[in-house]
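request received
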Amino acid sequence: MNVAMDHWSVIYREKEHALLALDQVGLHLFPGRITALVGESGSGKTTLGKSLMGLLPGSAETKGRIRLDGQEMAGADEAAWNKIRWSKIAMLFQNGPANLNPVHRVLDQVAEPLLQHALVSRAEATAEAEKALFRMKLSPDQIRRFPHELSGGEIQRALLAMTLILEPPMVILDEPTAALDAMTKGFVSRIILEARDQGKTILLITHDLDLAGKMADEAVVLYLGQVMETLPGKDLLVNPYHPYTLALGRSYPSMEMHRDLGGIRGDAFYRIAHRHPERNGAVRPHTHVIGAETAHEDGHLHPKGCLFQSRCTQSIPVCLEKGVPLMEAGHHRVRCLRGGIAVQLELQQVEKRYGNLTALGPTDLRLRAGETFCLVGETGSGKTTLAMIAAGILHPDQGHRRFEGRDMDHWIRESYRTLAGKIGVIYQNPADAVSHRFSVFDIVAEPLKIQKRYPDKESIRRRVLEVLSDVRLPTETAFLQRYPHELNMGALQRVCIARALVSGPTLLVADEPTSSLDPSVQAKVLKRILDLQIEKGLTLLFITHDLGVARKIGDRLGVLLAGKLVEAGPTAQVMRRPAHPYTALLIESARGQIPAASAGTNAPPVTGCPFAPTCHCAGKDCLTRFPETTRMEKDRRLVRCHYPLHSDSPGADPGASGSDEMKTGLGAG
Amino acid sequence: MRLDIRRSLMNDPWFLSGALLGLVLAFLAGAGPWLAQYNPHDMRFPPFTPPSSDHWLGINDGGMDIFSELLYGMRNTVWFGLATGVSALCIGVLVGMACAWFRGVTDQVLMRLAEILLAIPAVMILILAAAFFRPSSWMLSMVLAALSWPTIAKAVRAQALVVRKTLHIQAARQMGASGGYILLRHMVPELFPLYLIGFAAKARMAMFMEASLSFLGLFDPSRKSLGMMIRYALPYYYLDIWWNWLLPPIFCLTLLIMSVTFLAVSLEKVFDPRLKEAL
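response:
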């Protein structure tokens, strides 16, 4: 069944308050495709599902059009809907057991739609229902029980059988796998895929981003009743364009991700419109986003701005002013004034030499706002050089740098201080990174004093206290007057983090910030950095030699070998299936396995791959020629190896790459 | 680190004795005009009078009160040492910092100049200058400072070259700090121990030099000084007045130099491990 929903709005009105459940939603569903509807609670997912069944309560006001196979259903009466319900569209409601009548046996309830809609005899209906329930792997004994005698998973399977019993061409599944164990979830998933293969139109409403990502052909991301992004399902967790989708993905405990859970800053429960007298006596209708922390006064929405603005970490003043339509961006459609997640830093073919020594070969690196990129590699592999080039401290011999869309070298020449305020740097050794003649206050206030960002001492002091409490350090005067040698390493590194954050940077370059800390302090510091990233939307370039750390915090991982980026890609994928033998060796070593090949060599080849002499799969050309960059998995990964351990993942479609405008990948290196 | 230094200084007998001695002598020199009962230039007393309650150290051959002379002489010596030490330190720090900061040609030129000055014996220049031009003692102090800065400059330069590469200066540079800010807020304070050591060494050298030159009679004869007292007392050593005329200036001079030396030794001992480590 083809479903076309255009400019569909649903408003629940109660006295002078109006809850905006859906706002101008456009949605197109096609046979044989699974469309996933994702978003936080209160984003309007269920309301949308109910709209397609004509099940909205009478108090709901609707606007817009819904066409089912060309038939206009907006404003249709119950009779018209009744013709469609169950036979054309069936819905699996959430909260499984609550949808069954406790005083009837499961089998009878599953047979009910057949009796109601298919005009068959009770015996035929029961036989049909029995078959359907057996398909769901329920035993003859189980299907004759009452609902309360079955487990949640069994009830969910029974409900699914009931939903599909009339073979409707369109199915709406509201949280079909919520509260199911992994095995049952897998079973239900297979049933859904079978239904898709039969050519059914499927709308999958779910919190389960893994499921949505795996099964859906298209994912629609709803936020407070607005579509924020539509994207191919496969991209949902790994290549989102909208900051909301990214944050949503980070909040989800996916098996595919190693990174610690993020979350989205702030809260948004629902959106209401109402009118009431203001302080100046005027009565103005306005809309609110109601959240846990928003008082009535600051919950006011700008009448035109982006809904996600207050929680977005990359919002700019214009986001308050202008309404944003959904815009095409590659295979995605994004509702964001900035065209989705902005590119924070772009390095093109940057290169650094010291005399004869090439510290860093030509390297490309692109960091998107709010992501964490971890650079790993041995000592002397050029990690710090690359980081310092990214931070604007080192000047590359060759290549271009762009920061927030501006030429970085030009920016450095024009007004370095304004750039310096946007980049925070955390150094490896906190004891060396601060002057021992400075008190804690002096250390943290130093960037502000240098950059002259605040007019007076009082505002500097306020800002310093604010950032100290951000990194969970005491703010009393006694602490401010302490000197570095009086603090332990963990506290001192947090002082350094506070210093890096005090001028409100958008990019944080951290050069092994935790390597001088013990594990418990390291854990605290890393947690704090990640929390701050969620709160402030920092882009993080994280240098480490510790793969364990990279795995826990990184969205993407880059492996440097002798000044060359030999592999890069989403952390989980690289960790699970490294493509470069060197990466594989690094991971093995990090796991504590003693590598078979003796690592390191006295004389690495000048022209070839530096790893060739110790590599177990090196060929002849490895010693003579350094390989070009090979891209994999729709540009999301790259590897520089003549004989990569595997060339592409089986699931990725190679044809779809290239034209994508906002690829996360790193260009040719 | 600061606390460590303070504690080790307080536990160091060299430092304690040097500081105590220095304080007493500095008090005597500073309060000299008020402690002295008589004008040291006053020649109205009977010569060669032995010490009495009126004249604690007796009267010299010219009829002047020796105790008053001693106080004034010490005052001059101390001032000469301090002035020379401060001036040499200022020149040395300026030159050393400039070399480390600008490097290149500036560094080359200034360091070669320093080496030339190191090769020339300062005493010779000073004797010649004093003999030919008869300058004031202030002028001589400046000449001495101008000759003796190179060792300070070299130490400051070496240390500053290390310090300018340290992480906290790199961090300040990343924050957008200007050169002046980094020099004043980071580099100059960082080398503080070096200044103490350099100053102590130069002050000691200058005091000794002042005494030597005035002993040789190369200073203004009307200017009271410990060296000159020794010079005038020496011809009369057979008169059995050596203990009240000759000994006191020698004793004072020795104590002065000892005090500064003790301080210098103790400071060097405390700060040197760090310096050596850094170098």
